[in-house]
Specification:
By secondary structure, the chain is of the alpha+beta class. The chain is about 50% helix and about 20% strand.
């Protein structure tokens, strides 16, 4: 495992920034052309990544003998640990009697690898010394001395010529590695910038959709409010005169039943007017502090009766007591409407889950992105969700679900004011609402209200 302190910027090793396979082919060509060996090692692990043209005396004998191998490792460490400056050349005789040379690969101040040549002599070998070494290492003397004959004796000028080339190559590899890192970093920055611009673009489109929807609902609300006020005035006249007429005639009068039906229809229409006024925000109500969990628990028997025996109603209430401000009866009105819709969406047996949560402002803004979660800058929010596993809704239905009198056409008995009433109550109480739905999987309605600090 790589230690981060040895990596460039704590993340890049030599194998992350150079193509070792391609470099290996280049080193093989160099060895074939010059006869000089190449060793490429990472630092400080001294793992041999490339080895071309290595002599038998090192591969078959020095590296196989425990004593000689220890000498190789010790010499390598001493040699490579002295490579502390870019372009520096270190030439020294290893403990086994051969000469090695090395250059550092230094990138952004990190000695990350070394380029070496060696396994050579700069003067004719002392055969008696190497014979004694064979005995010390436990090697066959004749075979060991035979392998020594393959070790080249290189003049100082030739060695300087070759090492000069390798020095430039080491410098080039350092510059190439640095360029690769810059490209990597710029690529990552560009990738992140593209991702940011795509998030931003997605949010812009979402904001445009929300804005159009808000403007549409605002326009519909103004229209509905105006109609409701005018219609309510006419209904007041109808109710007044019908009630007056009923008080002036006997029940046996032929017109009594007709007038009674007129009065009944007027009172029924008043309920529709009330719901339109709620949607448009024109209903004058006085909100009160409400214990959310206690209120939901209290409504459970009524809601279970509404959904019927074939639907299991489950409650998941948060442990922490949470208060919200809402007019009496409005929470009941919301849950009755939502559970009624869930019942219609579930054809046979199914489940309806009602859950409550207390969340902070940051989490609230994540759930309702790009919208002011409340006109009041509340620190905490109550989240109420009603989830069913019914038939779900298509997007075109979701786009219009809050509009007054909008129905899917499946239920002729529906007034189409249920969801518009829920929408109006939520907005009236500085809340927010969203719906997620998938065909044949179900629907989840989430309601957000500012929490009242006790």
């Amino acid at each position: 495992m790589k230690k981060r302190e040895y990596l460039i910027d704590g993340q890049y090793g030599i194998t992350d920034i150079l193509d070792i396979e391609e470099l290996h082919l280049l080193c093989e060509d160099f060895t074939k052309a010059t006869g000089f060996t190449i060793g490429f090692l990472d630092h400080p692990g001294l793992n041999i990544l490339i080895a071309t043209g290595w002599r038998d005396i090192c591969v078959k004998y020095h590296r196989k003998s425990p004593i000689a191998s220890e000498n190789c490792i010790s010499s390598n460490k001493h040699l490579l640990n002295n490579l502390n400056e870019p372009g520096k050349l270190v030439i020294e005789k290893c403990r086994n009697g051969l000469v090695d040379c090395a250059f550092p690969i230094i990138i952004k101040g990190k000695h990350i690898a070394s380029l070496a040549t060696g396994q050579l002599l700069t003067e004719p070998p002392d055969l008696e010394k190497f014979r004694a070494q064979a005995v010390k290492f436990g090697l066959d003397e004749e075979e060991y001395l035979q392998s020594l004959k393959d070790v080249p004796v290189v003049s100082e000028s030739e060695l300087l010529h070759v090492t000069g080339f390798l020095g430039r190559m080491a410098t080039l590899l350092s510059e190439l590695g640095y360029a690769k890192i810059v490209i990597k970093e710029e690529s990552e920055l560009l990738k992140r910038e593209i991702e940011v611009r795509e998030r931003i673009e997605k949010e812009r489109k979402t904001l445009e959709v929300q804005l159009r929807h808000s403007q549409k609902m605002e326009s519909i609300g103004r229209l509905a409010g105006g109609i409701a006020h005018d219609f309510n005035n006419m209904l007041s006249i109808i109710r007044g005169f019908s009630d007056l007429s009923l008080s002036q005639i006997d029940e046996s009068h032929p017109l009594y039943k007709n007038i009674k039906e007129i009065s009944k229809a007027a009172k029924s229409s008043s309920n529709i007017i009330r719901q339109l006024l709620i949607f448009s925000g024109h209903q004058n109500v006085k909100p009160e502090k409400l214990d959310l969990n206690a209120s939901v628990k209290k409504l459970l028997p009524m809601l279970q009766m509404l959904v019927g025996k074939n639907i299991e109603l489950k409650l998941y209430l948060n442990d922490e007591k949470t208060n919200i401000k809402i007019a009496p009866g409005q929470l009941e009105q919301i849950l009755l409407n939502l559970c009624s819709n869930s019942k219609k969406a579930i054809k046979n047996q199914g489940i309806v889950k009602i859950s409550t949560h207390k969340i902070n402002r940051a989490d609230a803004e994540k759930l309702f992105p790009l919208s002011v979660v409340s006109k009041k800058q509340s620190e905490y929010y109550a989240l109420i969700s009603v989830e069913d596993n019914g038939c779900g809704m298509e997007q075109k239905v979701l786009d219009n679900v809050f509009e007054p009198f909008f129905t899917t056409g499946d239920d002729s008995s529906s007034s189409g004011l249920g969801m518009s009433t829920v929408y109006g109550i939520v907005k009236l109480n500085s809340g927010n609402i969203r719906i997620r739905s998938t065909i044949n999987e179900g629907t989840t309605v989430e309601l957000l209200f500012p929490a009242v600090i006790i």
